[in-house]
Amino acid sequence: MLGLMMMCDMGEQREEDCGIPRDIWELARKTGVEHCLQGKVDSARRTREILIGKLEAFLRQHPENPYAWILLGDHLVGDKDKAVECYQTAVHIDPKNPEAHAELGEYFAEYTDSREEAEYHLRMALLHSEGYVIEEEVICVIEEAARACGLEEIADQALKTGIERFPESGYWEVF
Predict the structure, then answer these.
(1) Alpha-carbon distance 72 to 85, whole Å?
(2) For a 10 Å CB count at each end of the chain, is N or C smaller?
(3) Which pLDDT tens digits describe the chain residue by residue (175 residues)?
(4) SS3 of 110, please?
(5) Pairwise CA distance, residues 8 & 23, whole Å
């Protein structure tokens, strides 16, 4: 997803979106400093819970704000079904929102067998991405998600679009 999505293994417990790669957890275990990383994860979890609460309160007052729905979906990393509902709500409010479509396309590409849904949302995201506030990030998500599920035509189109629109970007230089 556009938000950082990472799984960290903490013994029996699993935490999403803690921002600490598995190899760092393993090193921390071996060197006896796992408790320091656990503190960072706990702090991030509390911060995320506060942010989710504030977004939910904002949405009770402003339910027609697609950007708030996208943000809420980005922070519901532990509940993919609720996150998808948030992105679908954003698309319902703003059918041309490329970020919401990109998030849905990525979800369907990575977590379901619905290639048609992935293709639809990735095409819609690419179609409406020009001029969007985080256009380059959206195009990156489209390219990576499309390639991951074998939608090479969309991936190549996103890659070409990224190179054309952002020739100075370091991301597109690798291609």
Answers:
(1) 10
(2) C
(3) 443 333 333 333 344 445 667 777 777 778 777 777 777 777 778 888 999 999 999 999 999 999 999 999 999 977 899 999 999 999 999 999 999 999 999 999 988 888 999 999 999 999 999 998 889 999 999 999 999 889 999 999 999 999 999 888 877 766 5
(4) helix
(5) 9
Q: How far is CA 1 from the centre of its chain?
A: 2
Is this prediction's pTM over 0.70? yes
Q: CA–CA separation, 130 vs 109, rounded Å?
A: 22
Three-state DSSP state, 64: coil
Q: ∠ CA(151), CA(141), CA(121), 5° rounding?
A: 60
- Token readout for 59 is 């949405």
